[in-house]
Amino acid sequence: MDKHTEEKIEKFVEHRIVRFHQDRAAKLAALKLNTLLRAKNPYLFKAKNVESAPMMIEALLSARLSSSEEGSFGNFMESLAVFVAQETSGGQKSTAEGIDIELNRSGIRYLIAVKSGNSWGNSSQHYQLEEYFKTAVRRLRQNKESGPIQPTLGICYGKFKEKYVKDYLHTGGQSFWCLISGETEFYTQIVRPLGHRAEEFNEIFAAEKTRTYNRMTGEFIARYCLSSGQIDWQKLVEFVSKNIAD
Predict the structure, then answer these.
(1) Helix, strand, coil percentages in the chain from 3-state DSSP, rounded to 5
(2) Partners of 151 in the beta sheet?
(3) Which of 124, 99, 132, 123 is nearest to 113 (CA)?
């Protein structure tokens, strides 16, 4: 890969990773207690003997942040894959529904759907992806000079071996990044710019998390704790689940 292309990719990563950090702090600041409570199963916390407001908020926030950050970072990785394919291999953002990248490699036209990790989607979503592939292939084959077409599921990380699932290629980790960049070691090269200003933004996020934790703990005590300080489980469960009028 030439130096100019490498620098363009590094700048793309640095710009988008700053946005990722800013977004995660902004979403945390805007998070409401009611939203947090409605997203989780109150029976589970009772069964796990979570009996203090700080324990409840810590558990709720940790679960929320893990899910939210994984989704946001997954979107970032998928956008990075599209950019890398465009800059290194003449790939393009696909206009076909459900397909992210169209790329020619060794005479084969790859139709690539990008996913961050291997544990994505349910059976219905997997079936829908197969339908997207079939539709895109039919469209391209209307052109008799289209040549070989390979539907591909590209996973951004993972050690699994390449394999064919029905009619599409399932590739990930090093093999995936090599496919879209043409570089066997590209999967390790993108690590460096991901750390751009990480320490600075982690400090900002940690401060926001502390404020959110304190704010929500106070709100939870005021709304869902008895005067004795115990959690009012009936009130909490009613808030989350009650849907029949008295």
Answers:
(1) 60, 15, 25
(2) 111
(3) 99
Nearest to 218 by CA among 56, 48, 64, 90: 56
Nearest-angstrom CA–CA distance, 50 and 197: 36
SS3 of residue 149 by DSSP: strand
Cα separation of 68 and 61, whole Å? 10
pLDDT more than 70, % of the chain: 100
Task: Name the CATH topology of 1-80+197-246.
Answer: type ii restriction endonuclease, domain 1 (1.10.3250)
Residues in the chain: 246
Q: pTM (2 decimals)?
A: 0.83
What's the CATH fold of domain 90-194?
type ii restriction endonuclease, domain 2 (3.40.1560)
pLDDT confidence of residue 195: 85
Distance CA 183, CA 208 (A): 39
